[in-house]
Prior knowledge:
There is one protein chain. The protein has about 400 residues and is an alpha/beta fold. It has two domains: about 1-190 and about 375-395, Rossmann fold (3-Layer(aba) Sandwich); about 195-375, Rossmann fold, CATH 3.40.50.2000. The protein has 14 helices and eleven strands. α6 links the parallel β5 (about 165) and β6 (about 185). It starts with a helix and ends in a 7-residue tail after the last helix.
Amino acid sequence: MSVIKQIEFLDVGSKSIFIDVQPLHARNPQKMPDVDGYDTVHITPSALQFRAFTRNSRLNMMLNGGRLAFIRMMHACRDILSQVNPQAILLCHDQLFVEAAFVDAAKQLGIPTIFVQEGPFRIIKDNKPTRFASKMRLHATRLAESAGIVPAIAPYGLADYAGVLCASEHYRKIWVRAGANGSRVHVVGVPRFDALREAIEPEPEPDRSAQRRIVLISQPFASDRFVTQRASDDLLEMLARGLNKAHALEPFTFNIRLHPRASEETAQALTSRLDFPFGFDDNKTAIEKSIARYDCVIGHYSTALLESIIKEKNTIIVPVPKSGFLYEEEANKQAWFESIGVPVAYDSDECARTILDVIRSETRTSFASGLEDECGLVDGKASRRAAVFIQKIVSIPNSPVK
Length: 402
């Protein structure tokens, strides 16, 4: 959204339209709320003559007719684009079939597509599975793609885009090594982090006479099939024991911030074992505003946790055991967090001790080193840099920015 605002600032009179493809998400089909002041085109499965039989997108594609179903989808997307008639299409995600269909349709119509890296921890190539069943599913997918039963989707950000706007030079090198045209990959930072810029400025010291306020940033990694359910439950049970021990020694206010795709039930392995009152944070409040209300943030390996670190909030990592991950790259994300000096708690005693150390501390911790590869330059200007590149790309269709 911040990029759209900057485009409008640079090009007064320009108009943006949102296309909602979330109803086509196999695991989490939802209707995106309309954005005030903008038109939104809501895509429904029925409009694309598509049915969701399962929570597996590739299996759904096969059951709908495989490659023929994708061609129907692409033709429907082309009709939508013909009606909207945009000068360019911006994407920040491209791993759904409907997103790939829009990219193909735009190419047929001669409309430039521009990819904006949505945040840190992006996996440019395959996310390697660690379990036998996951490896077999990946193998079956590759066989189906090679046989032409289902279309292959280009890896993240590697479709034939007119421009790729990435977070950092680190990611630019990854994309180029993966096969992207280097002249079309440009470093701008992470636009969503612009809102964090003012939070880097010193905040008023908290009232040390009041109870400390702690928030857990939860992740639905089990329901998202990144972590086994057993590992998730064991982790939350351990965290509950640590929280109970710490709270018994020094009471604090505790809230849980649920992921937008999660519900209170996903946290039951934790909440059912807490011996003290707790609440739920309003997850509709922007993360940078929500985090500002707390003295300490606990999490695992999420982008929201990284945003807490950027804001120089006292942060504690309670990591998922490596053996619990279903994909190698997910484990690597967490290992990155463990490598930058953030306090880490591996068991309930360590969890209690670390919580008490942090909430009793008179100073904020700062983790300024090692962040730039994932975050890029956090200076509040990433959206503007992205908008400038987008303008140049649109003014010279199908050509790299000079």
